[in-house]
Amino acid sequence: MPSSRPAPENANSNTNHTSNSGHSKHNQSRAALSPIKQSTNLLDHSQSNPNPNSNHEPTMSELLAQTGNNLDYLNHDSVGFMSDVRGDNGLVSWRKGQGFRAWESALISNPEVQRKANVAQLYFYDYYFDLLTYLNRRKKRLILFKENSTNPQVDPVQAGLEWRSYCGRERALLRKRRTKLKLDSFHIIVQVGQGGYGEVFLARHKVSQEVVALKKMKKKTLLKMDEIKHVLTERDILTATSKSDWLVKLLYAFQDPGYIYLAMEFVPGGDVRTLLNNSGVLKEEHARFYATEMFIAVDSLHKLGYIHRDLKPENFLIDATGHIKLTDFGLAAGSLNPGKIESLKHRLEEAKEEDLQLWRSTVEMKTVYKTMRLQDPRYANSIVGSPDYMAIEVLRGQSYSFSVDYWSLGCILFEFLAGYAPFAGATPEETWANLKNWSRALRRPHYDRLEDQIFNLSDNSWFAITALINHREKRLCSIDAVRSLKFFSEMKWDNMRSVHAPFVPALDSEIDAGYFDDFGNPEEMKKYGEVFEKARAVEAVEEKEEDKFGSRGIWVGFTFKGGKTAEMLRGIKNFEGSPSLHEKTDENDDRALECMF
């Protein structure tokens, strides 16, 4: 077999021109690298070699600093070196981003590169945490088994059977760890949601028996609609919400060739929009309760470094105890789709003054808004979403901060107390005109009839609303500023989950989906007509040629396991809900050897 090693420099010189050319290139590369080899011989070994009496070893930066003078004449670009940028101490600081060339700095500052780096970091963290936890638990199970099997009264034959049984259980657990999560891992119970990019189902994990809300989205649709970044953002945020009681948790994320899946905790009480549709107007004390919990939920998201940007009553769910959880993080963080920004700006700029209807009374505004929501499917279920709650700087495509979420919460608080959104109109055109002239359109609701005067807003509530729906320079932008408002002065901000909720869902079981739309009812499905129509239109769009082959790596790192199954596969819990083999129990020792499956 011919050697792949390059010919030596002193090879036969009587070669043809092509051969000489090849050797010339090889010699040039060796010549370029030779100063590096020479420079290593110029090191001051008294400094570079560690002192036997010292624990300090020279770092790479120190070695480079010592050899730097010998490498000054070297063309770093030709051999792939990074620029020798030194910190205050004269040493290269790679961790601080020093020592990179311009194109390398641009590359690592790319948001997509940073996201993939973070995902990779989390992946390896989760991988080794899971692996080391499993190995530790397995070791403890083995120790416990040996302790229980060393009893001299145990028959050797029986001990052998127990050992084979133990090994079989460990093999079964190891086999489970190698099994990929897939749609067949869940039992689909009923559909509970429908969006522009997929469906949401109530499902139960077949092994752990966890009840989840399983969101199923088609990859091709997401690619055509340029929504991949938003879905990845939602997945990344959901993996970070596990420590907050106010944010919906992600249990599993997985994929197959055609779809991606997000299995989240099921929040059975429906959303706040359904609550508003059923109640119309909330009492001030009830509005204060829900608004307080919404501010806490949004602040939990802000503490993770994300801005939601698309807050509306539909994005707040009510759990089994009646408390609030925030969901739908698809538009959080990052940047909005440029096409959508242009669409929003265009709609705002095209709004006409004649569409501004400031003469309507509060009763008329309330009636018009209710009619719009019930009769116009575009209003409630638009794929793009209603602009009713979006801050004006987002609609204008301007720079914004966390305070845009406080504008949205101010709009929701207004709707709690008034029964309609502050900028709602009889037509979409009127709504855009109201938003364009928001400072004129924002008016305090007023009821003249004696029986309706109970719905007039208090001074404290109106002050809170106007402090939130305001110019960004004057708008409240922190949770502490909101807590200082008189309207919220009586709330137990630090212990809200101990407060009894105004509404507690009446649930028959953990899989009761009664507070969600019935997708088997044709009448209820009528309001999803536009959603289905747009989904069919997207399906008809031909896939781009580059998308057919260039999208394979987009979903790398999407998979996530964080539910009960993850604990079971680490050996923390068995697959029947009882303690794992190594955990101490009050039962006799035989239970410690109970089958894990």
UniProtKB/TrEMBL annotation:
UniProt keyword Plastid present: no
Q: What class of enzyme is it?
A: transferase
- Which GO terms fall under molecular function for this chain's record? ATP binding; protein serine/threonine kinase activity
Q: Which UniProt keywords apply?
A: ATP-binding, Kinase, Nucleotide-binding, Phosphoprotein, Serine/threonine-protein kinase, Transferase
GO process annotations (BP): intracellular signal transduction
- SUPFAM superfamilies attached here? Protein kinase-like (PK-like)
Q: What are its E.C. numbers?
A: 2.7.11.1
Q: Which reaction does it catalyse?
A: L-threonyl-[protein] + ATP = O-phospho-L-threonyl-[protein] + ADP + H(+); L-seryl-[protein] + ATP = O-phospho-L-seryl-[protein] + ADP + H(+)
Query: Which annotated residues bind ATP?
Result: K215
**GO CC terms in record:** spindle pole body
Q: Mark out the compositionally biased spans (Polar residues).
A: 36-47
Q: Where does the record place the region Disordered?
A: 1-60
User: Low complexity composition bias: which ranges?
Assistant: 10-22
All residue ranges annotated as the Protein kinase domain in the record: 186-488
Name all AGC-kinase C-terminal domain ranges: 489-570
- State the name under which the record lists this protein: non-specific serine/threonine protein kinase
Q: Which organism is it from?
A: Austropuccinia psidii MF-1
